[in-house]
Amino acid sequence: MEISSKENTQFFSNTVLPVDRSSFKSESSASKEKQSCCGGIKIFIGALSFVYFAKALSGSYLKSTITQIERRFDIPSSLVGVIDGSFEIGNLLIILLVSYFGAKLHRPRIIGAGCLIMSAGTFLIAMPHFFMGRYRYERFPSTINSTVSISPCLQDESQTPLSALEKSQAKINAGCEKEAGSSMWIYVLLGNLLRGIGETPIQPLGITYIDDYAIEENAALYIGCVQTVAIIGPIFGFLLGSLCAKLYVDIGFVDLDSVTITHKDVQWVGAWWLGYLIAGVISVLAGIPFWFLPKHLPKPESRKDSSTSSEQSKFITEDNKDPHKSYQQQLKVAEMAKDFLPSLKNLFGNPVYSLYLCASIIQFNSLIGMVTYKPKYIEQQYGQTSSKTNFVIGLINIPAVAFGIFSGGLIMKKFRINVLGAAKLSLGSSFFGYLLLLSLFAMGCENSDVAGLTVSYHGTKWTTDYEQALFSECNSGCACSKNDWDPICGENGVTYISACLAGCQASNGSGKNTVFFNCSCVGTLESPSRSSSAVVGPCQKGNECPKMFLYFLIISVITSYTLSVGGTPGYILLLRCIKPHLKSFALGIYTLAVRVLAGIPAPVYFGVAIDTTCLKWGSKRCGGRGACRLYNSSALRYVYLGLTLVLGTVSIFFSVAVLWVLRKRSSPQDETLSANGERGTCGTKSRKDNFVNSDHLIQTTYWPEKETRL
């Protein structure tokens, strides 16, 4: 490395060097080579941008269907968290191999193979819909389109026609036999696992390919374009989730007029499977161009004499240097693997890299948990539908994140911020972002008035822990089940778990237009002497809830923007504290650590914590606990936001430690971080020694290649 540094110094000092005749080319041939290089890299950038769009779309669509999957498969949030984390498990299986050995192989074809695997996993997620039969939701027979009139309050089973009882029991038994032999959610988990495996090579191999063959001053622009397209993917993913959530799950298979629930009902399940089929087709199309791209592109003239060669040339001797050796002999696994442990030791011996890695892991725990259950939080806290929730997230929150990332890069360029400044900007972004998040504690809605759960049948609020007193004097004469969830809304504004528990004696109409009469429990709240009516479906949240939801959206958008501003500076900090030829490996380790220690556990323990706030669990047909039907709004708010804030606060302390180490190792003249991670290497260097001026550092803010010198 010292020899290389001296050669560079001599070259830029205009000293005389041996002249290679091959370097003298005509202007026409040089122009053709430049056009060929630019054309090839631009095709690769276009293809990679489409792949980034495809993987971001399918990933965000999965987030938008979390509640749909939970209801369809009747599973708790903790199990949904395991399914969501299986994507990261897929990354874990091969990310070290891909990030280290993939850089020496045919990178475009590896990316193309990853796209095919990713599409296969996406198709597998949708498959259970076609094998598990039609969706069954809890509904009392009188609300189903039927000519049989049955009293909701069954004082005696003889009131129900025997044929109806036998038919209902037969359906339940048939359903049990089918459910007992399969757990179809496992296929969703395996499909997401395959998605994780297929997505693994896209980022480390795609970005380094651009960095190796793009003109140096254009590399940051190209990578910025790819990252911008990656932000567009989640917008379309959540909008697709919003569209599919409005469509009934069995659309095309059942008569929609016979469906007695609406998309506002907590039992509603949208056409979650349809979006996965669309995302799978997009992934297949995105992978096709990579099978026709070359392994190597012509290097730009400005980079042929660069002291820092590409990642592949660091490990592989080119053919023209030793024509007697075949290419296969130079790719022996043993020769490439011998530097693995020294490279790993070098990375973790760098205190800036290690501390920033810890800060990122904890912060991603916070962000991943928050993003995964944000749709559920909005639905349960503010009484919004899945369709509207996904629409709001896709159209408002995601663009705020994109604008924040762009603003971070613009600030870095505008003010010519160095490594120490990048650390400060990243820390400030996190601090003010989590500070804004604190205000969301005051922007929640009160619990819905649900008789027997949040209020008593006499209309009084529970002052202690909620006691599930579902039975009262008003429904004591009814043969009701406490496991049912078929909510109705009384004219007094209180929700009742079922018409039976509301003491309703008669009903009129069918399906969504059913009206219940003579409901003894509804009449006890205001006028005990008069019985009242109720309609199908739960009551709406309080009058203040729509206003609180608007405030939540405003603060949420500002918070998303503030946290995202620190994304680009943090990325620059990560890249400038490592050796240039270890960029792909360092990014692989970084991605591995984040996904193993954040992506996998965060959705699980966030889900477990959220499950503790459930007030009413659904029941499976064959017995056992199903999905949660009603949450304690106050407890959900404190658990969801509190866990996010605690993790974010811990990550800020690690970010402060990163800043402290940088201050200690930097000098006032030049705060550029040395890449070798050893003490005493962050000294002042002249521009000539570095042959990289400050303008170059700013121009390559998103992915600088030669930001440091050994």
Automatic annotation (TrEMBL):
KW Disulfide bond (keyword) present: yes
Membrane topology term: Multi-pass membrane protein
- Give the subcellular location: Cell membrane
Catalysed reaction equations from the record? L-thyroxine(out) = L-thyroxine(in); L-thyroxine sulfate(out) = L-thyroxine sulfate(in); 3,3',5'-triiodo-L-thyronine(out) = 3,3',5'-triiodo-L-thyronine(in)
One GO cellular component assignment for this chain's record is: basolateral plasma membrane
Its domain of life reads Eukaryota
Which parts of the sequence belong to the Major facilitator superfamily (MFS) profile domain?
44-666
Ranges where the record places region Disordered = 299-324
Q: Family assignment?
A: Belongs to the organo anion transporter (TC 2.A.60) family.
Q: Which residues form the Kazal-like domain?
A: 468-523
Q: Which InterPro entries match?
A: Kazal_dom (IPR002350), Kazal_dom_sf (IPR036058), MFS_dom (IPR020846), MFS_trans_sf (IPR036259), OATP (IPR004156)
Q: Which organism is it from?
A: Ciconia maguari
Q: Name one GO biological process term.
A: sodium-independent organic anion transport
TM region positions = 39-58, 79-103, 109-131, 219-249, 269-293, 353-371, 391-411, 423-443, 548-575, 587-610, 639-662
Which Pfam families does this one have?
Kazal_2 (PF07648), OATP (PF03137)
UniProt-recorded name of the protein: Solute carrier organic anion transporter family member
Q: Which gene encodes it?
A: Slco1c1_1
Recite the UniProt keywords alphabetically: Cell membrane, Disulfide bond, Glycoprotein, Ion transport, Lipid transport, Membrane, Transmembrane, Transmembrane helix, Transport
User: One GO molecular function term?
Assistant: bile acid transmembrane transporter activity
